[in-house]
Specification:
Blueprint lengths: L2 H25 L2 H8 L3 H8 L2 H24 L6 H18 L1 H13 L3 H27 L9 H17 L1 H8 L6 H24 L8
Helix pairs in contact: 1-2, 1-4, 1-6, 4-5, 4-7, 5-6, 5-7, 5-10, 8-9
Length: about 220
């Protein structure tokens, strides 16, 4: 695919992501997206086939970039398993705060349970990144960096669950944190470093062997 076609496809995906985030799967239409993207329906259908195909392409593009990052971190033999996990947390928090509309879209579509085939495909895409994160945890157990009796599944749930509560229930989390979590300046300057610090201190205390907790 030449550069012009790649650029055009990325432009359509940029527009589709915004429209889907604003309106959800049901509220959006391919005609609406093609109009906002300035392309005809034939081009959109050629690239993506259907609204579901376009929707999944939006998800795959977002998730794939983080997947590559996780894989690169996981394969870095120069750092410890803990340092790998800390880097994953930093990058994950940076991405979810920047893309909180996309995160809400994921939660909305997974919680509706209206389109089982689509939900299964979204879940399959997301699980690839979950598996990459779990590999780092399993590696830490195997090489002795992490305690042998840790619950890796619940560690993953803790990382993603903290995000879900803050991003997907803004009214509750704003009351809890005593500040509007939709305030972009607060998100960037206060909440991002706060989440990173909390998650790393919490997981470090749980994961590392007793004799490693001072590292």
């Amino acid at each position: 695919m030449d550069k012009d076609k790649i650029d055009k496809k990325d432009h359509i995906l940029d527009v589709a992501e915004k429209v889907f985030s604003d309106l959800g799967f049901d509220g959006a239409s391919t005609r609406m997206i093609s109009g906002e993207a300035g392309v005809n329906m034939a081009m959109l259908n050629y690239y993506f086939g259907s609204k579901e195909g376009l929707f999944l392409a939006v998800f795959e593009r977002k998730i794939a970039s983080f997947r590559t990052l996780l894989q690169n971190i996981g394969s870095d033999e120069s750092i410890s398993s803990w340092d790998k996990l800390a880097k994953c947390i930093d990058n994950y928090v940076d991405r979810i705060i920047v893309n909180n509309c996309f995160q809400k879209l994921i939660n909305r579509e997974l919680s509706m349970n209206k389109r089982w085939d689509l939900t299964d495909k979204i879940t399959e895409i997301l699980m690839i990144n979950v598996i990459e994160l779990k590999k780092i945890l399993d590696e830490g157990v195997k090489n002795g960096n992490f305690a042998k009796d840790i619950d890796t599944q619940l560690v993953v749930a803790t990382i993603f669950g903290t995000k879900n509560y803050i991003i997907n229930t803004p009214h509750l989390s704003s009351l809890l944190l005593e500040h509007d979590v939709r305030d972009e300046k607060f998100l960037e300057e206060t909440l991002k470093p706060r989440i990173k610090n909390y998650m790393k201190r919490l997981l470090k205390a749980y994961l590392l062997n007793d004799n490693d907790n001072t590292k």
